[in-house]
Design a protein that fits this description.
The protein is α+β, with helices and mostly antiparallel strands. The chain has 3 domains: 136 residues, Rossmann fold (3-Layer(aba) Sandwich), CATH 3.40.50.20; 64 residues, Dna Ligase, domain 1 (2-Layer Sandwich); 123 residues, D-amino Acid Aminotransferase, Chain A, domain 1, CATH 3.30.470. It is 35% helix and 18% strand. The strands form 3 sheets. Strands 8, 9, 10, 11, 12 and 13 form a 6-stranded antiparallel β-sheet that branches. It has a 4-stranded antiparallel β-sheet with strand order 4-7-5-6, sandwiched between helices. Strand 1, helix 1 and strand 2 form a beta-alpha-beta unit. The two termini are 21 Å apart.
Length: 362
Amino acid sequence: MSCRVAVTYNAKKKCTGELPIDYYSEFDSEKTINAIKDTLEDGGNEVVLVEVNYDLLDFFKNNHVDIVFNIAEGTCGNSRESQVPAILDFLGIPYTGSGVLTLAMAMDKAMTKKILRCENIPTPNFQLFKDYNDTIDPHLAFPLIVKPNMEGSAKGISTSSVVHNNTRLKEEVKKVIDTYHQEALVEEFIDGKEITVGILGNGNPDVLPPMEIDFSGCKESGEYFYSWRMKEYQGDASKHLVPTFYCPARIDKEVERKVSDVALRAHLLLGCLDMSRIDIRLSNKDNIPYVLEVNPLPGLDPDESNLTLIAKRSGMSYKDLINGILGSALKRNMVYQKDLKEKFGVCSIVSCGAIEERRNFH
């Protein structure tokens, strides 16, 4: 089925002035944006690119689209990834990916961890620091890792973020709070394999084979886990930042089953739709898969993003991945509209013809 698709995005820019060096790291490159556009067009769709700014509401009020392929990170605020879905929900326009509540919860790492704990999904022990002078929970065991509570793309995370004593802990907490103007999440650093799991679809989602990221070849860089520098410059041999990817991960079938089960439970618990990527540390000590983060809006760079790499190594082309995400969202929306019509005799729960009024703008 051919559609008119808007791709909503935030384009990566160069940092200037006093902005942190990683300020725009979550945003997408021109390469990624164009790759998605070209792939959707190759699938027979008409595509328009829409950069997210203060004109977004006016654009959708005055331009008809059938669906939005959303990769936008939002512009500011603690729940910024929810901004575009909130506007689209308000206007009754379907979109790919998770909804407002899921994106807001996943952005808040501490909240996500509390929710995971409620369902007995393993996640590292943690504490949220509002001030660097807060008293540390005596149950937390060093080494600890300090990170901003509401950032993605490993922003604010470096090798110095891993601390082994109270003095260094206070230094890193202060740095996070002063730089990112938000609470610092402090969690136990799990010594183990870095694993990430891609999940696609709805209903009974497809859990793709877990991918292991091996940093042993990056020793000369001093990096040994997914820091911001590792994510930003991944593949740069001159910086010795070339990890090795194993998909499926080098784990036995029973452990793989545990990892996949934990990832799927986290995906479903937060209400992820169409796609997600679940980041896990598999403990060397006891083979427990600890969920570090749930990513309902994973990167889709055609060559470098982990979900893309997992899909490729699972036999899925980039075209299959992108058009599959679109197809999943279209199917989900059609089922939703059918259910509404059967239950209420209408194709939208919005009353007073608001959706039809929106369409009359076009």
